[in-house]
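HUMAN: Quick job: go over this next protein and say how the chain folds.
***
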Amino acid sequence: MATLRQQALTMVQGRQRKAVTPPSPKISDYFGTNVFGAKQMKESLAPSVFKKVMEAIDKGAKIDASAAEEVASAVKTWALSKGVTHYTHWFQPLTGSTAEKHDSFFDAFAGLEKFKGSALVQQEPDASSFPNGGIRSTFEARGYTAWDPTSPIFIFENTLCIPTIFVSYTGEALDFKTPLLKSVEAINDAAVQVCQLFDRNVKKVQPSLGVEQEYFVVDKALFSARPDLVMAGRTVYGHSPARGQQLDDHYFGSIPTRVKDFMVEFEVESHKLGIPVMTRHNEVAPGQFEVAPVYEEINKATDHNQLLMDVMEKAAEKHDLKVLLHEKPFAGVNGSGKHNNWSLITDTGVNLFQPSNSARENLQFLTFLVATIKAVYDNADLLRASIASAGNDFRLGANEAPPAIISVFLGTTLTEVLDELEKNGNIKIEKGDNMYMKLGISKIPEIILDNTDRNRTSPFAFTGNKFEFRAVGSQANVAGPMTVLNVIVADVLKTMLKDIEKEMTAGKEKKIAIVNVLRKYIKDSKKVRFEGDGYSDEWAAEAAKRGLSNLKSTPLALDVYKTKDTKELFARHNVLNHIELHARHEIMLENFIKKVQIESRVMGDLALNHIIPTAILYQNKMIENANGLKGLGLDHSTAVDTIKEVSKHIESLKQNVTAMIEARKQINKNPDLEVQAKSYQTAVKEQYFDKIRYAVDKLELLVDDESWPLVKYRELLFLR
């Protein structure tokens, strides 16, 4: 009887290409057709209502009940015209994925389709069944979703989706979107005040984000034949194939036909949803790819990234493929991340991280650049915690992704500018343009976009007119780390403004006051700047000398959420109160525990029920072979050696799996989540995962190929 692996491989051999034809040769013909955006609203709403909605989007104004009724009526008419029968409040609970409960437009009592303004504005999902960190008990189920008009309503899978926030009955945030929106308000408030030192016309500053999404693609049948991929999202076992990524031949190579068809499928659907996907290419590891969009306002970009992952997974099903979003689905090849390209844009159209030929404009650029570097230095541990997860722990610092040490890369030009600015602290400063010349501010050319090198080993790199936060994991909701980034930069900007005003109160001319504060901040934050190889052992040693943290595991990284400084930081900017912050800490700890638990159980199940029985059967065959050779008087030493080798790994596997299960039982008796998480890290993950994997991977090489129960890496990674 064929094994599950053999059946899966047979299915792969019979796959046929499923070519996709876009609805039009021009993307512009169908871009945003499934979005109820500004154009649709302007066409379907009364001018006064349209104005109210736009004020809500641009200025955060409230939408009254009568306006909500008109919007609901227009949305219903639009949705019904497209064959939609149901609507849902689409929200982002602290699971990391999205959630939705579908309700029908059809009212059976009235015998017609209805959609009230109250249904648009608010719904009531169960708040106790989602992760809440103790905010809601099982018997305290009430929670609310509330419409977020700053993110457009859309149609997906024949359902009208209304982006919403999610809060408890008592008002605490139970989602990623609520604190993100509050952090946008915080950085807007702080950045506008600083901008007005340079330009009084600036009334709003909006964080901008572009999220590069890395992912793996495997055949659906092969995925289903790997219980570890199904249960844990990653392969807990698997020996490296003879050919992996060592030839560097996959990166930017010709995209496999099946994958390209899948890409066209999800790109068409993404464009209909207004997701501005732009770039597609092979990534470094075999079977790994990337999609990148154009920059958008941070809230919309975050929603679009969450939606994009859903679109990709559904499109993959149509092509008998499976998208793997885990940070490290395969050992021995690169893992996947999200590169978050973040910048600040004023309502006057200025990118605050864009250098210029104008010395005066460059002073503003340097102000925001230095403030961001200082924010990263002051809050490196918090930034590290924002990207912490069981999956990302496998990836960070694994010679393929930035290390767990948070540092900032600037490139040669900007490093020289900041060094010059700091060094010239004792010279006599003259007013006017001559001051800029002596400080080297005028030396920052627009060409910096090209002469700033890329450093893929840096977790936080300046890349010409933006910062690229490369350390975020591929399956993360980017709202988490982006909320933290917004808040820490807002906090430094507030402090910086006070310091500048203090200098001015002491009689310093404004430009000189700004430069004096910049010098101090450059000096104070210099330790976090690093231009070299973040993978090197030398950098780890150097970072330790500088006093920079190297928090390699999630349980250690999350400790910063307990500190007084962190609590005060989030409360100061009205982003998260102490209860909400405590809840998130508990949820992240619990998530880590459960992920490691699942992986541990999968390892045990596969070892005891699949690997060991297969290895014993093979061992018995070899014993028969050795006895046969011996009976014929032939040399049977090779067979005996193989038997001993197989037996050794079987015994190691039995002992370590049994010990791991016992360790897990003991850890589960402790009700303290922090103790549990740290114990799962040290007493389960660190103590047993590698040992157990080593034995299984060795057995994979010894047991005959036809008998091995698990689909192998060479079969998973190279799509046919």
Observations:
- The chain has 25 helices and 18 strands.
- The first strand starts at residue 35 and ends at 36.
- The longest helix spans residues 578-631.
